[in-house]
UniProtKB/TrEMBL annotation:
InterPro entries: AA_synth_put (IPR009569), BB2672 (IPR035936). This is Peptide synthetase. The lineage of its organism: Bacteria, Pseudomonadati, Pseudomonadota, Alphaproteobacteria, Hyphomicrobiales. Residues 171-193 are annotated as: Disordered. It comes from Phreatobacter cathodiphilus. Signal peptide: none annotated. It comes from the Bacteria.
Length: 193
């Protein structure tokens, strides 16, 4: 199966504070979106799982480009997430094709990444906004890292396209004050706590 990528877009923001004191180290929040032709647009296909295998190189390419945009240091990445935005001629299930290629690529690239990668999938029109949930890469219950990245690619997805996205950050929210498990309290090494 050929994966026909029309474009790849990368966005990075540098958060210096969020209304409170300036941070000693800015937090980088980045995302990458790959926009590609949906091979199933306009028709129902029973077995679409082989496409997950075909998407694995794209997942690794996207994860690598995003890591580079955030400075290239795997140890600096604290949180991640993924998402899909399917054009109107597709179906929600087509966005689920990104679960393995996107999530596993980030986990493989980062080395130690124990937590499942949170995800959002939706069908939307040209220029739709995608909110990608993120949480800590090693413990999903680290409350300070419950966050998200909002992205939009103006000319995407066309009705017969899918936008697949990854997100990574170098920190949690700038001024966490909601208690709960903190990053330095991760102990179970089970991906949750």
């Amino acid at each position: 199966m050929t994966i026909d990528v029309r474009k790849i877009v990368v966005g990075v923001e540098e958060v210096r504070h969020d209304g409170g004191p300036k941070l000693d180290r800015p937090i980088l929040k980045g995302w990458i979106a790959a926009v590609l032709k949906n091979p199933y647009a306009g028709r129902y296909v029973e077995d679409i799982q082989p496409t997950m295998e075909a998407l694995k190189p794209l997942g690794l390419e996207c994860a690598t480009k995003l890591l580079e945009a955030l400075g290239g240091d795997t140890a600096a990445i604290e949180a991640y997430g993924k998402g899909s935005l399917v054009g109107a001629a597709g179906e929600l299930e087509h966005g689920a094709l990104w679960h393995v290629p996107g999530g596993y690529a980030m986990r493989e690239l980062l080395g130690e990444a124990l937590a499942i990668v949170p995800s959002m999938t939706k069908v939307g029109p040209l220029g739709a906004i995608l909110d990608v949930p993120i949480h800590h890469r090693n413990a999903a219950y680290v409350r300070s890292h419950f966050d998200g990245v909002t992205l939009m690619v103006q000319d995407s997805p066309r009705p017969d396209e899918i936008l697949f996205a990854l997100a990574m950050t170098t920190g949690g929210r700038p001024h966490p004050r909601m208690g709960g498990l903190t990053q330095d309290q991760i102990s179970k090494r089970d991906g949750q706590r």
